[in-house]
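Lecture 7, part B: from sequences to assemblies.

Below are the input chains for today's worked example.
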Amino acid sequence: MFPVMLNVRGRRCLVVGGGGVALRKVSSLLQEGALVTAIAPEPSQPLLRLAAQGRVALESRSYRDGEASEYALVFAATDDRSVNAKVSRDAESAGLWVNVADDPELCSFQLPARVQRGSLQVAVASAGEAPFAVRRLRQLLDQRLGPEWGQWLESAARFRERVRAAGLSPGEQEACFDRFFVETVDRERLTARVPPAHEVEGWFEGHGEPQAAQPTPPDTAQPAETAGAGLVSLVGAGPGDPGLLTLRGRDRLLNAQAVVYDRLAEPAMPCDIPAQVELYCVGKEAGHHPVPQEEINALLVRLAMAGKRVVRLKGGDPYVFGRGGEEAEALRDAGIPFEVVPGVTSGIAAPAYAGIPVTHRREAVRVTLLTAHESAKDGGPQVRWDLLAADPHATLVGYMGVTSLPTVVSRLLTAGMDPSTPAAVVERGTTSGQKVVRASLVDLPGRVVASGIQAPALFVIGPTAHHADRLDWLGDLPLAGTRLVVAPGAASLASSLEQAGAELVMVPVPLTPAARIVMAALPLSGCVMHGAAEVDALDAERGDPGWPHDVAAWCVGQRAATRAHELGWEPLHQVPAGTDATELVRAIVAARTRAPQG
Ligand code: SAH
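Predicted structure of the full complex, as structure tokens:
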């Protein structure tokens, strides 16, 4: 067997058949830009949809003798071997390459199983001798090769351009390429990274003068895959407080096979997502977009095409400044079924936790959710600051607003907004890391800088913001700002701790990968544990990211306390087994007062 990569862009390709296998061939061909004709007497719904969108020329009828000869590449995937054989014969006699699904004898070419990350493709094939082995090997590679490989390849392509332009000898060029590979690929773990520009700069030292980086065209490649398409649930995780994840969101997460999540969603992730579920972090923190949107879309398509139940977990609500709409479009274009599970958006919840009702009968009758990120930069729509400034009975909630706050405020003031309008900024609203700054509009930017507010944060401007001073229900709770890991043996104390204002991380023991992610998402204050086994399990985690050295042990009963003592856990507190939660709350408050770092 001779492997090739075919450029099918703009070529006429024929797929005979209307079932799942044919559909996958059609989708793969479309993604590579082929002009696809499908012939099927009873086409499936997704195929009809693609036809209705004008993406496929669909002939809803039987295959006619000889018609395969008009195409560049021919696929047969009907459940009738005689039809498949006829298509194969016609193609052969016209001198065309033909593939018949699951029938090597009728094929003049076969398709490899493949793993795709952006433009990087790894193909696996066995000349038809052991397809089962190929499938398993592909699956293994699919698990081992993270989404970063697509970006890595892009950066390799950029690097190649630069090396080429630097006027080096062939030997020097090869040395640069070796350097790139050695520095960016972990060959043991099969992971890769994208080197920052300044690092690449250093690799040229002694190898002539590097040229300025070439802008690369955006990656439009979408991966194509095998197997029937699974469902993708676009789930809103809510603003951070784990209690604000919806029931349906939780259900989808516990039943998923793969979860693709943003950093913002980490604190609200259920810790009991089973250990075998694949978890993909695709970043998205202010200022850091480690995985480009194209790659995220491609990952969702790839996982779903592999037949998986996928959850795309996003902070807040998926359709509120989360690019959820773009992901839904990508799924629709790939013919993948999806659903949306809305979430509690931070723009409403964070103000609520800061004591600000976004509407109020006598004060504000309109709420505007806006992004202060200048989408106008890339030709997008502009915010009409003049209209916003003119309405005194409205609340303005600004997402992604920390860095652009000074510009926003000056635009509003220039447009005539009252400088004494109440305003606030809420950082990490609804979580144990919540910080609120209250000031009049004109003073807000200065106060925000002075108080060291950082993303994620949003601003609230409007008459109701003054309530923050009076309706601060959260700040009045004794355990506000405390983040406690609660092990299963102490679960009966959970609801009281939570009502006292603590953020709880309810972990299973043994710990799951999801629990580790949640624990590391925000700093912890303490662990509430019962029995020696729970102490052992959590002690093993100390020292990991998110674990300050002073995470307290709250031991329920003597055995836990003895074990924590043996392990040198410090600070260490013991409460009697069977203690009631109010006792524990009181003890934690007392300990915090003694050591105010909480
Ligand atoms: N889809 C999300 C918003 C994503 S945009 C939602 O519906 O909430 C990211 C921005 O949301 C951040 O820059 C910040 O402005 C805001 N944000 C998200 N979570 C937040 C939180 N817990 N507190 C304050 N702002 C938050």
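Note for the exam: The longest helix spans residues 148-165. Keep this in mind when comparing with the next example.
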